Amino acid sequence: MSSNNESVQKTVTVALVLCLVCSVVVSAAAVLLRPVQAVNEKANMQMNILQAAGLYDPSKSVQEQFEQVTTRLVNVETGEFVTDMDPDTYDQRKAAKTPEMHRVLSGDEDIASIKRQANVAKVYLIESGDSIDKIILPIHGYGLWSTLYGFMALEGDANTVAGLGFYEHAETPGLGGEVDNPNWKAQWTGKKVYRDDDVAIRLVKGGADRSDAYGVDALSGATLTSRGVDNLLKFWLSDSGFKPFLDNVKQGRI
Length: 254
Ligand SMILES: Cc1cc2nc3c(=O)[nH]c(=O)nc-3n(C[C@H](O)[C@H](O)[C@H](O)COP(=O)(O)O)c2cc1C
What we know:
Elements: H1 8-52, H2 62-66, E1 69-75, E2 81-82, H3 92-95, E3 102-104, E4 116-118, E5 120-128, E6 131-142, E7 147-155, E8 161-168, H4 182-186, E9 194-195, E10 198-199, E11 202-204, E12 215-217, H5 223-236, H6 243-250
Parallel strand pairs: 11-12
Antiparallel strand pairs: 1-2, 1-5, 3-4, 5-6, 6-7, 7-8, 9-10
Bound molecules: flavin mononucleotide.
The site of flavin mononucleotide has 12 residues, from helix 5.
């Protein structure tokens, strides 16, 4: 026997009310959680920066540890600091998509396959007194399936690698995804970047000689991701990337 509660009209009304309530709850949660999300994203990025430099200590708060880091903006072309923009609000990825804030890279120059490069880049510095202890540079470039985003940390000599890490990519776990393998990442520490002013750091297919100051093992079974990492490093450490800035650091001009 059918009751009044089973009429089509009532079923539709209950479904509509339920949809309305759910959409209000989901929208409210999205709006209310946005500030928390932004704080977490910022802390996560700060942790990635500290990790790349080998400075992250999980037993301490990220915020507290990040106090030792100074964020600066650099004019990529001149390698000089930009002082009329706020590093805290500057979004380099957004700038790379904004016409007046980026330059389009020619095919020959674009070895990292990024197409557009922001004119101003963020750099992170660990300073002690007047000297720079560590320089952490944001880097990105295309692998096999995705753009890899990460940081390369250099010692204050602007030539010795303090660490390297990628925080975003979609390479295959176990193949290109081995860029996240701690053993592979550990190889970078202590390697040198420049030989006679040329970028000499590179990935070596089949394995680098342990005594090679510039060579790191390519990822086995992931030649294309390895090539992508090699290319993006060559790009960001060259005159098109951070070399003008690193030269200024080496020569004590900034
Ligand atoms: C499902 C699948 C996923 C793959 N993912 C990657 C990858 O993330 N990175 C990469 O370089 N090669 C990847 N490859 C392998 C490449 O297609 C290519 O064979 C490999 O880069 C060659 O490397 P090797 O010369 O070191 O063997 C993948 C292959 C398959 C079938």
